[in-house]
Specification:
The protein is mainly α. Helix content is 57%, strand content 6%. Helix 1 packs antiparallel against helix 2 and helix 1 packs parallel to helix 4. It is elongated. Bound molecules: zinc ion (2 copies).
Amino acid sequence: MACRIHTVWDPMGWLCLSSIVFVWSYNTWLLPKLIMMPHVAQGTLPAAVAAGYYVVAALCMAALVRASTADPGRVRQERDMSSEEFSVQSHVCQKCSIVKPARAHHCSRCGHCVRRMDHHCPWINNCVGEGNQWLFIQLCFYTQLLSTYALVVNFAHFYLLPPLADAQPDEFVFHYSVAMLRGAAVMGVMIFLGMAALFYGQVINILTDLTTIEKMKDPFLEVSAQVQRPWQESLAAVFGTRWKLLWLIPCRRGGVQGISARRYSYQAAV
Ligand SMILES: [Zn+2]
Ligand SMILES: [Zn+2]
């Protein structure tokens, strides 16, 4: 597995990323402590439910760490480019003073050009580009799954499961548990809606072989874009493998299969 750590020195990005880590920590600590473990202890909730929550939370955090520290596809020098990318269309970045391949864009936040840049995401303090888009999609997916899991458990605690018999009224968390759980539910709904929108947008981008930046430059591009290949092939190119089970694994070496050049050949053929 590649171990190169990519960091972006952006205070605003660090602040956004820290807030995401805080929300994750809050929910990963709060729900098991207030709901799952007490119910497991009194036999009203299977232990597998609590274990499953920790597994999803771990996958979510792994995807976040990897998406924020993976190289999004920084353009370093001319020899990074294939001959196809270089010959069909190339530009010199005025800020980096290097020739950048087709579909690469300069990110002012990161301070360098990114291959097939989709957008800069402050929440992961990193660009989303050719090198880490698959991790970003995993993050959106697992965050939706985790927030749904949390909402279901929260709902079940109040409306489906029997009351906890041995709640400790003298504990701090007992007095504030309802407010804290309500807060967790509000966060869960907001995060789910935000991540669902991001996830849907990313999948559409991949299936239509467009990036967010390209669509912003030409809003009609998505309407006119035609899917060039089956959805499995489009996703396999981004995830770097045809094995669909591996699409769910963040702790592996990712890779792309020439997607920078792919759209390029499509444009040239039109
Ligand atoms: Zn640049
Ligand atoms: Zn960036």
